[in-house]
Write a structure and sequence with these properties.
This protein is mainly β. The protein is built from three helices and 56 strands. The protein has a 29-stranded antiparallel beta sheet that branches. Strands 37-36-44-45-41-40 form a six-stranded mixed beta sheet, with no helix packed on it. β46 and β47 form a beta hairpin.
């Protein structure tokens, strides 16, 4: 334990405790002194946070679980991967979008496409404390049913005088093999009798990992039909042995892949804070926070696609999961480049003015910008392979879904089922190249005026007003809009394909491979996988095809008749010889959200039966105005297609310039009164009872607010449309917390807390029927529904979209025990959480609008430590049970609506140690994921594996300096 003597006051020396015990004591003090239910993580010393990753630290708090999975970056089609970094948190079962993240009390702008925040993008070197408010503070932004996370950064006046802290380290993943440098610095000083201060901080990190990844992109649910039913997805004669009865639900994997991923995440962050006291009563703070998170992932792999109508010899288990089958299929090898750049900058000013001894006036003004992909990086997915030209080139195969903890594997592979020719066979040709580019800009402007009045230590009152304006703009471009992705599709002539169906490629591009030996730690069955998978540079292939200048391209990419070639959505159509992305008008969305809030919060200290009673009350009144816009098309007519009398040709309204894609705007507003009451009764000097009652809200997901509705299919009797709903109301929760906290010794306590949340306005997908009146045109007289040529008919359709629906209760119990064994240096922190709901998921419910509460995971944490005489060691274990994470697979064609995604049970073990070489210099080592845990997910049933990812370990060693 390192100690630093503070300045002597009144001839008394104060000892400031740092290290693990100091951090735990500061967090304990916050927990006990807070009016509401607050947990905290505090820095062990200036510039020294307990964990490299903020979410990893919060994972140690009762009721908090972390998300280690992330969607592949722009361009990727390899499902959901994970580099092992904890990026988002779930609090008491409420996922990332239900939590509000603040920087020093200010709303954060984020380049992500939703309301969630990525904690892996914040350097822990700058953070002095994280406060997790599980009950609301009326003076802070409303938006959290789960928790408000307030990240606090150091300022010059926090520690007057010269402060210097720096660290340098190396990070290595044994599975990746190479080391990456990391470093940070913080310099703070005050001048002119502590009337002026400046703090400058910066950090650089480079995280290099490799992931091995087995992926099923979607389990599609269908029903078994009769052999004579031409429209049946599966027929009885496709099944081996005794076929299932008609109407039996079955699920099949549509897109199976084996991937090897190399990822580099480079982070640059900086902070400047200036403080000035022009008089004894005024304090001015200016700050600028900047971060840049540049993620590059190269993904290599093998994948195969399956269709329900092409399968034979199908075997199913008792739940209807297809566990084996046969299908003739070509072979694809993928080389992907998935870039993602997140950038953030925040400029703020804060003025505090002590108008009197008991009244403080604070004005806070802030502007923040969050960008995703501001430079317009394009992600590419280059697919090459062989097949389609005859049985000697195709593979007759299936995917076996084993029982237990085994990896799904292909029954055969290689041209004509010759496994020896799976790779390095000289017949690889071009196939498809999906390309994507997305951009997001999020701007937040906020102003807050607050008055704090204190009358002795017993009574205080806080009154204020806050204005927050958020403007979020999202757009994307891809090669699907102009059909360029198929320009050289078809695998080429080397595997028997006709001209116009792919081209030959230089076989020198395809000489390398990666091994699948011991592919996923803790999972059996690696020996059933192909022993080696092709690994190639996708840019070589893309540049080669662009160099052909269109020679040998297919006829896939002609301009749609009557379409405007100058419309952004038609860029690159017809194929110009160079792959291009075109604007996707369906992706465009602009949200302008303004919130006006007034709040009152007060604290009164009294007594009840001679026991001290602290009463904290608050109320916040929020008025929210939303203006949301998108790009859509309005139907003007349905014309029956002469060559297919069951199909409609959809005609859209065009403006004077012939453009059919036009802006669609909608406005909406709502207002809520959000009260809270916190009671703390000190039964003894060491035992506190707490009761917290409150109402909280979370605003609807941004993507669900899009006002655009698009036609999905257009056939007689089966016109379907889908879209967003700008009139969605926020989730609204009434909350009760009751608990007890026993602070029985220095730095030791036991707490038990129960909670109940009654949540209204959950958002579900709903369908309704309507008709397009008098715009259907028939061309076949006497054919139903027509009685004469050209007769106008009504066209019935079904539209689906998000609506506010059911209510649900979420309840749970949190238990925590922190104990330090006197002056021995030893201690531990143990906690566990049990959560439940009255609306759990039922896999037997195949209703397309089925509903269940997501995110509910029981969890437990144990940290044991030693901290004495300058030596520290800590071992931290985390367990979280399997839980329903969200609905919707990457391949989302199930007849039963959005299929569920469950995250499997996981363990994680971290170790860290440090030694004070001198009073200023500390050496340290930490190991993340000591036991090599993996990340995995499954679908409706436990054997429906979606993703299994081995992300390896990280070892960090370095030194920390302070002055």
């Amino acid at each position: 334990m390192a100690t630093v003597p503070a300045v002597a006051q009144d001839s008394m020396e104060t000892v400031i405790v740092t290290g693990i015990r100091g951090s735990l004591q500061k967090s304990l003090d916050v927990k006990r002194e807070s009016a509401g239910l607050v947990d905290a993580i505090s820095a062990e010393d200036i510039g020294k946070f307990p964990d490299v990753n903020l979410a990893e630290s919060m994972m140690r708090i009762p009721g908090i679980t972390v998300t280690r999975g992330r969607g592949t970056a722009s361009g990727g089609t390899g499902g959901t991967s994970s580099n092992g970094e904890a990026s988002e948190i779930t609090v008491r079962g409420f996922g990332p979008t239900f939590n509000e993240t603040l920087f020093d009390g200010r709303k954060v702008a984020t380049g992500t496409g939703n309301r969630a925040f990525d904690f892996s993008s914040v350097s822990s070197d700058f953070v002095s404390q994280i406060a997790i408010l599980k009950t609301p503070d009326a003076s802070l932004n409303a938006g959290a049913i789960g928790a408000t996370i307030n990240i606090k950064f150091p300022k010059p006046f926090d520690k007057p005088g010269l402060v210097v802290a720096a660290s340098a380290s190396g990070m290595v993943s044994p599975e990746r093999g190479d080391m990456a440098p990391n470093g940070s610095f913080l310099i703070s000083d005050t001048f002119a009798g502590d009337k002026f201060g400046i703090l400058v901080a910066g950090s650089y990190s480079d995280v290099r990992t490799r992931q091995n990844h087995i992926n099923n992109q979607g389990w599609e649910g269908k029903t078994v039909g009769a052999n004579t039913d031409a429209n049946a997805a599966f027929k009885q004669n496709q099944f081996a042995g005794t076929p299932p009865t008609i109407g039996t639900p079955v699920w099949f994997t549509q897109d199976y892949g084996i991937y090897h991923e190399i990822e580099n995440v480079e982070r640059i962050q900086g902070r400047v804070a200036l403080q000035w006291r022009p008089t004894d009563t005024i304090e001015i703070t200016l700050n600028d926070n900047y971060s840049r998170d540049n993620d590059h992932q190269a993904q290599y792999g093998y994948s195969v696609w399956f269709n329900s109508g092409s399968m034979s010899n199908i075997q199913i288990d008792k739940n209807g999961t297809i566990v084996n089958f046969q299908q003739t299929t070509p072979t694809d090898f993928q080389g992907q480049w998935n870039p993602q750049l997140l950038q953030y900058n925040d400029v703020g000013a804060n003025i505090k003015w002590n108008l009197s001894d008991n009244f403080l006036l604070t004005l806070d003004v802030d502007h923040a910008d969050g960008w995703s992909n501001p430079a317009g990086q394009v992600g590419i997915d280059v697919d090459v392979g062989y097949g389609n030209g005859g049985p000697q080139y195709n593979t007759v195969m299936g995917i076996v879904i084993p029982e237990g903890h085994g990896l799904p594997y292909p029954t055969f592979y290689g041209p004509g089922n010759d496994k020896s020719k799976f790779i390095n066979n000289g017949i690889i040709g071009s196939h498809v190249i999906p390309m994507t580019m997305g951009k997001t800009l999020d701007t937040v402007n906020q102003v807050k005026l607050e008055g704090d009045w204190t009358e002795s230590d017993a009574v205080s009152l806080k009154v204020g007003f806050q204005y927050v304006a958020e403007h979020k703009n999202q757009d994307s471009w891809d090669s699907f809009q102009n059909n360029n992705w198929q320009a050289y599709g078809g695998y080429g002539p080397a595997s028997g394909n006709a001209p116009g169906n792919g081209v030959a490629l230089p076989q020198d591009f395809f000489k390398n491979s990666f091994s699948t030996s011991d592919f996923i730690s803790g999972w059996s069955g690696s020996g059933n996988l192909p022993p080696a998978i092709l690994q190639y540079d996708p840019w070589d292939t893309l540049n080669y095809l662009n160099g052909l200048k269109g020679v040998g391209a297919s006829n896939c990419c002609a301009l749609t008749p009557g379409a405007d070639p100058n419309d952004p959505s038609n860029v690159g159509r017809p194929f110009s010889g160079t792959y291009q992305v075109a604007y996707n008008p369906g992706s465009h969305q602009v949200l302008q959200e303004k919130t006006y809030s007034g709040f009152v919060q007060g604290t009164v200290k009294s007594s009840l039966a001679k026991m001290p009673l602290r009463v904290n009350f608050g109320v916040r009144y929020d008025i929210t105005e939303e203006n949301v816009s998108g790009l859509g098309r309005t139907v003007s007519a349905f014309n029956q297609i002469p060559s297919d009398l069951t199909a409609w040709d959809t005609v859209y309204v065009a403006d004077a310039n012939g453009k059919q894609t036009l802006p669609v705007n909608a406005t909406h507003s709502y207002q809520y009164l959000l009260p809270n009451l916190d009671l703390t009764l000190s039964v003894t000097d060491t035992l506190d009872l707490r009761l917290n009652v409150s109402r909280t809200l979370t605003r609807p997901p941004i993507g669900s607010l899009n006002p655009v509705t698009n036609i999905s299919t257009a056939r007689l009797g089966s016109v379907t449309a889908s879209g967003g709903n700008p009139d969605l109301l926020p989730f609204l929760s009434d909350n009760i917390d009751f608990g007890a906290q026993w602070y029985y010794a220095q730095n030791s306590y036991i707490s038990v807390n129960s909670f109940l949340k009654g949540v209204d306005n959950f958002i579900i997908t709903s369908s309704r029927s309507a008709t397009y009146g008098n715009i259907g045109h028939c061309v076949a007289p006497g054919k139903a529904p027509c009685t004469a040529a050209g007769q106008i008919v009504e066209v019935p359709y079904t539209v689906s979209g998000p609506v506010n629906g059911p209510a649900a209760n979420v309840y749970g119990l949190e238990v925590a025990w922190q104990h330090v064994f006197g002056e021995t240096g030893f201690g531990f922190n143990l906690n566990g959480t049990i959560v439940g709901t009255n609306k759990p998921y039922n896999p037997l419910d195949r209703n397309i609008s089925g509903f269940a509460v997501t995110g509910l995971a029981d969890s437990a944490n144990l940290m044991v430590f030693y901290d004495k005489d300058g030596f520290q060691a800590r071992l931290a274990a985390n367990w979280q049970d399997s839980y329903l994470d969200h609905f919707g697979h990457t391949q989302a064609g199930s007849d039963f609506g959005a299929e569920p995604v469950f995250v499997n049970t996981s363990w994680n073990l971290d170790f860290s140690t440090s030694y004070d070489i001198t009073e200023q210099l500390t050496g340290y080592v930490s190991v993340q994921n000591l036991t090599g845990s993996t990340y995995s997910t499954h679908g409706r049933y436990s054997n429906q594996l979606l993703d299994a990812v081995d992300y390896g370990r990280k070892i960090i060693f370095g030194a920390h300096f302070k002055l």
